């Protein structure tokens, strides 16, 4: 199973900190960030957090990210202009 979240994480340093935090909470999941272009405001300017594993508690992960001040949501089909 794969879940994809869009986030407002802009720096590699913050992405590394968030990955370490989530990996400690969810050691059976594989996660990585793709930092994107931020010329537009979130959500159209965003980074991608990919999460892979057999079972993903996406709501829990969203709450954990939000507790760290990270804006996030499950990626949906969006047309950005």
How does the SSE layout of this entry go?
Elements: E1 2-7, H1 12-25, E2 30-34, E3 47-52, H2 58-67, E4 72-74
Antiparallel strand pairs: 1-3, 1-4, 2-3
What does this structure look like?
With 81 residues, the chain is α+β, with helices and mostly antiparallel strands. It is 30% helix and 25% strand. The protein has helices at 12-25, 58-67; strands at 2-7, 30-34, 47-52, 72-74. The longest helix is centred in the first third of the chain and has 14 residues, at 12-25. The protein has two helices and four strands. The protein has a four-stranded antiparallel β-sheet with strand order 2-3-1-4, covered by helices on one side. It has a single domain, classed as Alpha-Beta Plaits (2-Layer Sandwich), CATH 3.30.70. It starts with a strand and ends in a 7-residue tail after the last strand. The mean pLDDT is 89. The relative contact order is 0.30.
Briefly, what is this?
With 81 residues, the chain is α+β, with helices and mostly antiparallel strands.
């Amino acid at each position: 199973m794969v879940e994809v979240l869009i986030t407002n994480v802009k720096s590699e340093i913050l992405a590394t900190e968030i990955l370490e935090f989530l990996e400690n909470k969810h050691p059976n999941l594989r996660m990585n960030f793709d930092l994107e272009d931020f010329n537009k405001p979130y959500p159209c300017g965003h980074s991608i957090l990919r999460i892979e594993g057999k079972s993903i508690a996406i709501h829990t992960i969203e709450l954990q990210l939000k507790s760290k001040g990270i804006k996030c949501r499950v990626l949906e089909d969006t047309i950005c202009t």
